[in-house]
Specification:
The protein is an alpha/beta fold. About 45% of the residues lie in helices and about 15% in strands. The structure holds adenosine monophosphate.
């Protein structure tokens, strides 16, 4: 059941690949009825659909680099103006550059929305390569698994929906993860200072138990959107 006492909220999840942004965003969706907006998911859908933007993004993503701001902004703008986002959104993987952060400020202003919080998921970098390299998801419902840390209770069967189809992202391999971590530190980590300057930054220790982390995030959502 979703908690309904939360008003329209815009939250940003910041953190390197493997920090748990997607997992936590999905949990907040279920708990508060917010909509997860993942630019990575939107780009992967564009790649799979073979759109012009998808074709341009494909090789960049495979190399672990950042897709151009123009492509990402166009994709996000389209999605953000769909009606289901009115209940509030969790931005997962966006913004990733200073230009994207400034564009988001303008977009929120034009939509009459304000930023609830930018939450930095603080993790130990060295652990991220192992976390990302072993992860996979259910091809049907998207539930996340990991070769070492979270296997299905029945081998090869999704705990959540019973599907036997799973998938791995093309960029979740040790080589590409290194490039993605570097892109994070060079281009995205400076946004922590940007949002601290606006008084919107919240830091959450994102190592350890997933449910404890989810509880820390839920407390922030209740606080900023009550
Ligand atoms: P993610 O699913 O967030 O890990 O993103 C996967 C890949 O999609 C990244 O390594 C980038 O190549 C691309 N990507 C996702 N979001 C963005 C963004 N906001 N800006 C630029 N590239 C992005």
């Amino acid at each position: 059941m979703t908690e309904t006492s939360v008003k329209s909220a815009v939250l940003i999840l910041l953190g390197p690949p493997g920090a748990g942004k997607g997992t936590q965003a999905r949990m907040l969706e279920e708990q508060f009825g917010l909509v997860q907006l993942s630019t990575g998911d939107l780009l992967r859908a564009a790649v799979a659909a073979g759109t012009e933007a998808g074709k341009q993004a494909k090789t960049v993503m495979e190399a672990g680099a950042l897709v151009s701001d123009d492509i990402v902004l166009a994709i996000l703008r389209d999605r953000m103006t769909e009606p289901d986002t009115k209940a509030g959104i969790i931005l997962d993987g966006f913004p990733r550059t200073a230009k994207q952060a400034e564009a988001l400020d303008k977009l929120l202003e034009s939509e009459g929305l304000s930023l609830g919080a930018a939450i930095s998921l603080e993790v130990d970098d060295a652990a991220m390569i192992e976390r990302v390299s072993g992860r996979y998801t259910c091809a049907n419902c998207g539930e996340g698994y990991h070769d070492t840390f979270k296997t299905p209770s029945v081998d090869g069967v999704c705990d959540k929906c019973g599907s036997t189809e799973f998938k791995r992202r093309a960029d979740d391999n040790a080589e590409t993860v290194g490039a993605r971590l570097e892109a994070y530190h060079q281009q995205t980590a400076p946004l922590i200072t940007y949002y601290a300057g606006k008084g919107a930054l919240r830091r959450v220790d994102a190592m350890g138990d997933i449910n404890r982390i989810a509880e820390d995030l839920a407390a922030i959502v209740r606080e900023v959107a009550a």
